[in-house]
């Protein structure tokens, strides 16, 4: 099975146009999108901004990809820039068969390969907190608050750090509850593993990836782990691939102007891996 993977498009029209051309030219069997795919939702009305983008722009584009490439499946996760109401909108389209919304509790299967998806990240300075959690239980609670989507009032509400992070399981606890899978399987996770070529920012001297994600990969050893989130990292480290045990971990990175994506065959991922911009 031939996979095309990219992440962190943030609703940028030029990146999506380049992805249109890549999908049309390469005709993958599966396109996987690794989170932070939409324009940032406005704090005063996430539905009118981010959900509207999904309905009016993103899902029609998914339909166009699938119409242009017979047999193409499109799978995705969300990321820390995304609101819970955006994930709810994607769940509706998942149920309708328009796309696949991956999660870490129920594996999805295609061509004999199973997939788990995980959207949450450790805390960031960004103000949308729907998909942010403590990395490990007992980690210090950050002092930066933000906002979360309140489905009952259908509005964003303020989330104090103690209230938000104390009331949710950590990444480590979430991932510990993921099912054990037989080989081969692929992990699609917005946050990259800690202390790799995949988790460095240009203005911070230390790695910012997830300890929990790294431990999960070390313990479970999927065929591949596909990441994003720290999309500056390949430019900082000079690499977009890290081997953790038997697992090939990939963060293609992303820029504002040029699409960063990878293509590979699940039969021989390392041997067939190709980046659209990097050697």
Task: Please characterize this protein's 3D structure.
With 279 residues, the protein is α/β, with parallel strands linked by helices. It has one domain (2-275): Purple Acid Phosphatase, chain A, domain 2 (4-Layer Sandwich). 29% of the residues lie in helices and 21% in strands. The chain has 8 helices and 14 strands. The strands form 3 sheets. A 6-stranded mixed β-sheet has the order 4-3-2-1-13-14. A hairpin with a 4-residue loop joins β7 (146-150) and β8 (155-159). The radius of gyration is 18 Å and the shape is globular.
Brief rundown of the structure:
The protein is 29% helix and 21% strand. It is of the alpha/beta class and 279 residues long.
Topology of helices and strands:
Elements: E1 2-6, H1 13-26, E2 30-34, H2 46-68, E3 73-77, H3 84-95, E4 100-101, E5 108-110, E6 113-118, E7 146-150, E8 155-159, H4 161-166, H5 171-176, E9 185-189, H6 211-220, E10 224-226, H7 233-237, E11 241-244, E12 247-250, E13 261-265, H8 269-272, E14 274-275
Parallel strand pairs: 1-2, 2-3, 3-4, 6-9, 9-10, 10-12
Antiparallel strand pairs: 1-13, 5-6, 7-8, 11-12, 13-14
List keywords for this structure.
8 helices; Purple Acid Phosphatase, chain A, domain 2; 14 strands; alpha/beta; six-stranded mixed beta sheet; 279 residues
Largest β sheet strand count, sense and barrel closure: 6 strands, mixed
Beta strand count? 14
Helix and strand content put the structural class at alpha/beta
In CATH, what is the class?
Alpha Beta
Summed up, the domain count is 1
Question: How far apart are the first and last residues' alpha carbons, in Å?
Answer: 22 Å
Strand numbers in spatial order across the main sheet: 4-3-2-1-13-14
The radius of gyration is 18 Å
């Amino acid at each position: 099975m031939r996979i095309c993977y990219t992440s962190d498009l943030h609703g940028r029209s030029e990146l999506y146009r380049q992805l249109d051309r890549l999908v049309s030219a390469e005709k993958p069997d599966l396109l996987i999108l690794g989170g932070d795919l939409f324009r940032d939702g406005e704090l005063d009305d996430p539905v009118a901004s981010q959900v509207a983008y999904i309905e009016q722009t993103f899902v029609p584009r998914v339909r166009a990809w699938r119409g242009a490439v017979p047999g193409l499946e499109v799978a995705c996760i969300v990321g820390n820039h995304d609101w819970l109401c955006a994930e709810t909108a994607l769940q509706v389209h998942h149920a309708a068969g328009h796309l696949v919304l991956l999660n870490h509790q129920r594996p999805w299967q295609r061509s004999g390969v199973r997939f788990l998806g995980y959207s949450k990240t450790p805390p960031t300075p960004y103000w949308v907190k729907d998909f942010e959690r403590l990395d490990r239980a007992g980690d210090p609670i950050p002092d930066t608050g933000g906002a979360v989507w309140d489905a009952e009032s259908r509005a964003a509400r303020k989330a104090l750090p103690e209230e938000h992070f104390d009331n949710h399981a950590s990444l480590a606890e979430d991932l510990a509850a993921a099912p054990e899978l037989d080989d081969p399987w692929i992990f699609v996770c917005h946050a990259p593993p800690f202390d790799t070529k995949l988790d460095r920012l240009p203005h911070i001297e230390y790695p910012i990836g997830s300890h929990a994600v790294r431990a999960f990969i070390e313990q479970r050893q999927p065929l591949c782990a596909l990441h994003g989130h720290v999309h500056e990292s390949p430019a900082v480290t000079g690499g977009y691939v890290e081997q953790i045990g038997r697992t090939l971990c990939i963060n293609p990175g992303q820029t504002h102007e040029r699409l960063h994506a990878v293509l590979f065959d699940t039969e021989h991922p390392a041997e067939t891996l190709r980046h659209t911009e990097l050697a």
